[in-house]
């Protein structure tokens, strides 16, 4: 269980490895609709962005902004930190074999700048569609193509 940097959203991984988000408001807590992930075993909120969290699904790192998950990145590490658009992971199973003298290559810094650019692109496409600007949205999506936009 973990709170975001503004204490407005709670992330929970159940004993069955089900990941859910909850919005915390003055009038109570509410589960975030249409968002649930299975096989999640680790998570860490971005220290600066209240709507962005890194999660580990099996052997893949996913960054979720709002309720939109970016393309997964293969990774076998535990999440140490998530700040300045960088997720740091460490492969603990190998560190524990030789904790006093482990290979520093077991620590990975994964930059999520590309993922954040994708989120901005997706948000812009959604804004154009919500405003009823279908032809503009079509041109924008063609210029910024990604499978999730189609």
From TrEMBL:
Keywords: Repeat, WD repeat. Residues 1-111 form the IFT121 second beta-propeller domain. GO terms for biological process: intraciliary retrograde transport; non-motile cilium assembly; protein localization to cilium. InterPro entries: Beta-prop_IFT121_2nd, Ift122/121. It holds the Pfam family Beta-prop_WDR35_2nd. The keyword Repeat applies. GO terms for cellular component: intraciliary transport particle A; non-motile cilium. This is IFT121 second beta-propeller domain-containing protein. It comes from Panagrolaimus superbus.
